[in-house]
Amino acid sequence: MIEDCQHLYERRIGGFEALSAFLDELANADVTVVTGWNRYAWVYLAAVQALDREFLVTVEIQPFPKNGSRNSC
């Protein structure tokens, strides 16, 4: 599991090098990898880099309720 993948790019010229290297590494890996992105980065990268085509399955987790109620797991 790789969290905070939204830090793999910068909005500047050449800002996708780390992201491209990361995707190349994932393409060569023979394991299942779970990545975590914030919603804003995902929407941006899906639009400008077609990131959603790189990942065959996406799961969106809804935010926790803000009313303070607790549910047991």
Automatic annotation (TrEMBL):
This is Uncharacterized protein. It comes from Halorubrum lacusprofundi (strain ATCC 49239 / DSM 5036 / JCM 8891 / ACAM 34).
